Amino acid sequence: MKTIVNLKNINKLAIPATIAGISEPLLSITDAAIVGNIPEYGLESLAAAGIVGSFLSMLIWILGQTRSAISAIISQYLGAGRLDEVKTLPVQAIFFNILLSIIILLSTVFVVEEIFMFLKAKDKILEFCVSYYGIRVWGFPLTLFTFAVMGIFRGLQNTSWPMVIALIGAVLNILLDYIFVYGIEGVLEPMYLDGAAWASLLSQGVMAIIAFFLLVLKTDISLKLRFPLHPELGRLVIMSLNLFVRALSLNIALILAVREATDLGDRFIGAHTIAINVWLFSSFFIDGYGAAGNILGGKLLGAKDYPNLWNLAKKIIQYGVIVSLMLTVLGFVFYHPIGRLFSNEQVALDTFYSVFYIIILSLPINSIAFVFDGLFKGLGEMKYLRNTLLGATFLGFVPMLYLGKYLGWGFTGIWIAFTVWMLIRGAALVFKFNSKFRPLLQKT
User: Fold this and answer.
1) Which end of the chain is more exposed for a tag (fewer CB within 10 A), N or C?
2) Would you call 423 exposed, middle or buried from its count of C-beta atoms within 10 A (0-12, 13-18, 19+)?
3) Cα separation, 10 vs 5, whole angstroms
4) pTM score, two decimals?
5) Is residue 247 located within the same domain as residue 358?
6) Residue 358's pLDDT band (cuts 50, 70, 90)
């Protein structure tokens, strides 16, 4: 059946994907907002949550890339009318993902203090980091399993069930955060930062259980591992490896930013924790149309429907930019209330406000990069995405970060580096799509 590319069909995928997407960073945002208001050691707790959250995000993003790879392959086979040929692939991808997650988990858990010392954590913040990570890290395989299931649903052109999974996890996390962090008088003693870690871990467990049952009940995909290995598993692994390298370079930028902010002092890492959580939240909000491009793009490519693929790219960029402009306006309207959601430490808030305008003004630039990023994943262009991130990180972000440090730009220099990073990413993807698919469009 021919795929119709219009606002209704795009939003049918994009809106649930947006809700699911913003639910992911909401877990970290909730931790940061609640622990940042702890009466004692609030600033140190906020800093520790930011440092650990950045490191865990790096691990999850690097190994969670099989979600995009499996989604791309399934959607392409669906578009070509050959879905039955890949029924054994998803479970093999899930086992591959979980095995990798266990290896990485065991490789970090014994050197956790050294990891956070490298990130410039010290004294009370280092103590909090080690304790917080020691609990949250066990949710790592659970999250990667959930991500893989979400990728399967996306490949099947369904973003509604991933939305349900993510929403339940986010709401449960908020509820448990309040209970565990602050306690219940006469029933449960306050656990403070450790309580936030337990809330996240339990939420991730519930999400994994729901994902398991939805996959069993709502699809024909079996979770029984069958051999021989599927012929497409090799392509999936290669695609995933390219995305691993891409995610690694992406997280090098994020980790370097955390390291430089931590080195500036406690108030700066506290402010950076607020800033990066707001940045990630807005990124996932915009990324809903990237998810629609991922899902529909793979299907259209599988069907070799280049006119509709070109039309899809134009529409999702337009919608993504409109959403980013709406967020820009809201950011300026609620400039100060947004910061106060995260902390009552005025010194951290003043530092955050000094760069918040950069984050807000860069949102339209981010929207182009994120939307095309999602589209390219659906098209299977993982190698180009890898090269784009490597170039943007090591030829754009890193030089600008250290140029800003040399020139004494301080905290502002970190966020100028992020803006340059996103500008390079967006420009490279627009150029590639235009140069590759315009000639194909003209031949049809």
Assistant:
1) N
2) middle
3) 7
4) 0.76
5) yes
6) very high
